[in-house]
Amino acid sequence: MENIVYRFVSVISCLCIIFSYAYYKSYSDSYEKNQISQKVKEEAVRETALPVENKENIIVKPGASCVYEIYYADTGETLREEGYVSSQFVALKRKDILSYLEDYMKDIPEEEKEKGLVSYKLISFSSDAIRFQKVYSSKNINCAYCLVLENNMVVVYNGNMSEICEYTGINAKELSIEEQKKLSEGIKVKDEAELYSILEDYSS
After folding, report:
1. What local confidence, expressed as pLDDT, does residue 74 receive?
2. From CA 57, how far away is CA 177, in angstroms rounded?
3. Domain boundaries along the sequence of the chain
4. Largest CA distance in the chain
5. Full-model pTM
């Protein structure tokens, strides 16, 4: 009887020891993994997080990559153009590029006006890579005239739609369905030459 009790106690003791060791080992491994993971995160932060004063002193290096994201607000389409940074941005700091973009939008080139440039932003900045975003919208296109339909007739307004410039006498029924749709939304015309070219096409 004593042997049975002794064996039982021995088995229980062994099981307790095995369980305790397994628990300790599992806890130890988990703790070690957490420590390693934490160290990796801290190293990553130390490598990427520079003091504010250092970030302000970063300049764009020659050969840095440059990405332009072109967004068309009318269609929701986004294009991506990748290449190397233009020489005009080399050796500039972030604040210099922001200042350049601000001046650019104050005096937008005619070509960009015709395309309907709405905004020009710096999305990300580092010494090795910069990323810009340009947004275009037809609603922002400067124009001299606007063609619309009124009572199924083509009418010419001035650019800001505040005054009628001409009643053309052209009936919408004489035009294609596609052209009627464009006119119902309003067709922007940049100058007098383009206006007469369109009206001539309608009349032919």
Report:
1. 81
2. 59
3. 2-49, 56-140, 145-203
4. 120
5. 0.51
